[in-house]
Write a structure and sequence with these properties.
Strand order of the largest sheet: 4-3-5-6-7
Number of domains: 2
Number of helices: 8
Radius of gyration: 20 Å
Structural class: alpha/beta
CATH topology of the largest domain: Dna Topoisomerase Vi A Subunit, Chain: A, domain 2
Order of helices and strands: HHHEEHEHEHEHEHE
CATH class of the largest domain: Alpha Beta
Largest sheet: 5 strands, mixed
Number of strands: 7
Strand content: 5-15%
CATH architecture of the largest domain: 3-Layer(aba) Sandwich
């Protein structure tokens, strides 16, 4: 079968196809656009990827991904340090912060409890969350987990773990659709859910 491009381009297409939302056809189109715009897009993108890959870090405090440790959120002294919003993944943190409604701090669990996937409490960043609360100063913990079965199970587990503390525990309002993922919700829905959060204990 005749080849229309070299193996290096094949490798580029295969790597692009691994990105969310890009199948083989979309990856080929994206690769072609990069090749056509080598100087204006491809080379600056390659430089940006190399730069980020060199500097990327996981925040020791909240597990956000940033080029700083502590991350920009944890470093920002203008934020309300009495409130921590617990999220499943970094994408959820970015989505909530994009809404510009929440002005407190975050904590990334790194997943949710799932018997099917073999994910237990020991696999989540729960101990570091409890340590932050035990350090003092936190008055409210917002459980902003996805409205899925695993998300709700994790919320109940965290509420129980937090029950001995004096901290108020709230959850996002039901404006977040069941089965919905935070990263795919619009800013208005996220803002409304944060404002209408309810206490879970």
């Amino acid at each position: 079968m005749p080849r229309s491009h070299g193996s290096e381009i094949d490798t580029l297409i295969q790597l692009l196809a691994k990105l969310p939302g890009l199948g083989p056809r979309s990856a080929r189109r994206s690769a072609l656009q990069l090749l056509k715009k080598k100087d204006s897009v491809m080379l600056p993108l390659a430089d940006a990827l190399a730069n980020v890959a060199d500097k990327i870090q996981i925040c020791d405090t909240c597990s956000n991904i940033d080029t700083h440790n502590p991350c920009h959120v944890c470093e920002d002294m203008r934020r309300d340090r009495t409130t921590i919003c617990v999220v499943e993944d970094v994408a959820d943190l970015w989505a909530l912060d994009r809404s510009e409604t929440f002005k407190g701090l975050y904590h990334v669990l790194g997943g949710t409890l799932s018997a099917l996937d073999g994910i237990g409490p020991e696999d989540l960043n729960t101990d570091s969350l409890l340590a932050r609360i035990e350090a003092g100063g936190v008055k409210e913990v917002i459980l902003a987990l996805n409205a899925t079965v695993d998300g709700q199970t994790t919320s109940h587990y965290l509420a129980e773990r937090l029950s001995p503390s004096e901290v108020k525990v709230t959850a996002l309002a039901h404006g977040v659709p069941v089965g919905g993922e935070l990263d795919y919700l619009d800013d208005g829905t996220l803002s409304a859910a944060l404002r209408a959060r309810s206490e879970v204990r």
